[in-house]
Design brief:
The chain has nine helices and two strands. The chain has 340 residues and is mainly alpha-helical. The protein is rod-shaped and about 130 Å long. The termini are far apart.
Length: 340
């Protein structure tokens, strides 16, 4: 392996260095927008360099699941970072029409990096949920109600995030203290090996965080796409179309209709009986049902009694109004001529 890596080493190392340098420049960039042409040019150049380097690593077969971490030469450890760097640069692409594609590609890169690290025993971590081959921690015989939040999982996720944050800060401090000696060439092989392993462990935490963010964004994008593709069906039972009614003046009888018709020539007039008959023909109101077995004489008698009751009520109302007027107007009120 060492001979093969040495034969392709300079070119491979150069491609990785270019991709890593462009990534560092993008992270330190002060451009106000990630979609600026200068920023996207660096993203494109970095992706091209790292993709060529990844193809060379696969061709040289630098890494194998059948070997141990100790069997990898120290100079080759840095090439384990290629999938993670590819995922990070893929996320910096800003084409909105291909956002979902970029997210899925970046997730594949990060996941490939995590699986490779796990096969070599680099760090202790759990692969993201739903990953192929990952054991489910929950028993299938006791499914959880999806409508209720999994408080245990939420607490474990929060604890894991806090722990990863602490480890990230410790790793950054160690890497900062060792980077000068490694970059200057004064570090020995053990220091170089430790430096690259620390970098890999730092990117393990970054990859786990990025996959979690990607999964959340993918859920939103899939919901949005489903809402756009769903047919716009009826939201409720359709109501029958109502006939247009022209404005008119509703009067009590024909005489009143003639009076109001003269005052409002622009509007048609209609008596209550005419209006009722029109609504009956339209099916909006129904005709009073005849009582079964009732003769014409009984119907006339019933109508007469109803009219008498209405007359009695009218007479009673007038009598009450007259009594009220007499209470407020004493006898002789208003008679100014007969003063004696």
């Amino acid at each position: 392996m060492m001979a093969e890596a040495g034969a392709g080493g300079p070119r491979l190392a150069e491609l990785l260095a270019v991709g890593r340098r462009l990534w560092d420049e993008l992270e330190a960039s002060t451009e106000p927008s990630s979609g600026a042409p200068a920023v996207q040019d660096k993203v494109r150049q970095g992706l091209e360099a790292l993709q060529r380097a990844a193809a060379m690593v696969e061709q040289l077969e630098l890494f194998s699941e059948n070997e141990e971490l100790e069997e990898i030469p120290s100079a080759d450890l840095k090439f384990l970072l290629l999938p993670a760097l590819l995922g990070a640069l893929t996320l910096k692409q800003v084409e909105l029409s291909r956002r979902r594609e970029h997210l899925e590609n970046a997730r594949e890169h990060f996941l490939r990096f995590l699986k490779l690290c796990r096969s070599y025993g680099l760090g202790s971590f759990q692969l993201p949920p739903g990953t192929s081959g990952e054991e489910q921690s929950r028993s299938p015989s006791a499914p959880r109600d999806s409508s209720q939040p999994d408080l245990v999982a939420m607490a474990m996720s929060r604890t894991a995030k806090i722990e990863r944050y602490k480890q990230k800060k410790e790793l950054e401090n160690k890497l900062a203290s060792m980077s000068s000696s490694v970059e200057s060439g004064t570090a020995d092989e053990d220091q170089i090996r430790e430096f690259y392993i620390l970098q890999i462990q730092k990117w393990i935490g970054t990859s786990l965080e990025e996959i979690e963010s990607i999964d959340q964004e993918l859920v939103i994008l899939k919901s949005r796409d489903a809402a756009r593709q769903a047919p716009a069906g009826p939201r409720g039972p359709s109501r029958p179309a109502r006939a247009l009614v022209k404005p008119f003046i509703l009067t009590r009888d024909a005489a009143q209709a003639r009076v109001f018709g003269a005052g409002y020539p622009g509007l048609p007039t209609m008596t209550v009986d005419d209006w009722y008959e029109q609504r009956r023909r339209q099916g909006i109101v129904s005709t009073p049902q005849r009582v079964p077995g009732a003769s014409d004489e009984e119907m006339q008698k019933q109508q007469q009694e109803t009219a008498e009751e209405e007359d009695d009520e009218e007479a009673l109302r007038k009598a009450r109004d007259w009594d009220d007027w007499k209470d407020t107007h004493p006898r002789g009120y208003g008679n100014r001529h007969n003063m004696g």
